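Chapter review: from sequence to fold.
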Amino acid sequence: MATRSRSDRAAVLASSVQRSKPAPYPSKARSTLVRRTVVVVLVLLALALLTISFRSPTSGALHSVQGAGASALRPFQVAATRVAQPFRDAYDYVAGLSNAKAEAKKLKQENAELRRSALIASARAAKYPALLKLLHFEQGSRFPQDFNPVNAAVITYPNGPFAHSLTIDAGSNSGLRVNTPVVSGDGLVGHVTNVSADTAVVTTLADSQSFVAARDLQNGVRGGVKAGPDGTLVLSEVPKQFRVNRGDAIVTAGTRNARYPDIYPYGIPIGRVSSVGVTDTEAFLQVQVQPYVNFSSLDAVAALVPKRHR
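The token string follows.
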């Protein structure tokens, strides 16, 4: 009996076991086709509902269903609106605040630009009389014919009561050299004492080292103009036997000797005699001259560049 059971088990083990086939998975193409079909059906259904809605009368069954649905959903719509309102208000506040800040920044920039433009216009307007006077002098008969004017703006002024030089925005590139005369629309300013490519330093007549050969236009008396007290000038070396009157105009004397040319051409206005004094112990008159030029408030000047190099 045991032998038979053992042989039966061997027969069972030896026999081939039949396995069931797995269920096939749906193919990718079939899934795509199903999705497309569903989309097409939904689109057609939506189009049909829209068509029925537009063509059906206002009291039709579809409109009744729509009205009932809208009535049923209205409490939820009202609740959603009330819940969303604070967030909408907060968003509107933040957006409005951001827009207000941007607008304020824009207005501030525009205001600054307007102030800058106004300052520039004011500065130009302040310089206009000086430029007009300078142009009038350059086109007048008193301007020396052997020179070309190089107009320049004053960019730095004397920085103290004992400083008598200023800087202009024209230099050697414009033909300026050391000793180039400098004038304004009122008269003689001084001469160039230092020059670079685009700027030059001008020492005015108020400097203690300045000296200009000059003459009295009314009587032809000659002398030398140099710095005097309290911002005035002095016409020196005028003998007592000559007559100089208050109010006489003093101009540059120009070159008297070809071997020793003067750096200033003839006839440039210097100033007007403000007082004349005489003492028994002095051999010369004490002639004070009020300069035409205010050396501390110059805006525009012209350097006199010779047409022919000396």
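Two observations follow directly from the output. The chain has a mean pLDDT of 80. The CA atoms of residues 29 and 94 lie 51 Å apart.
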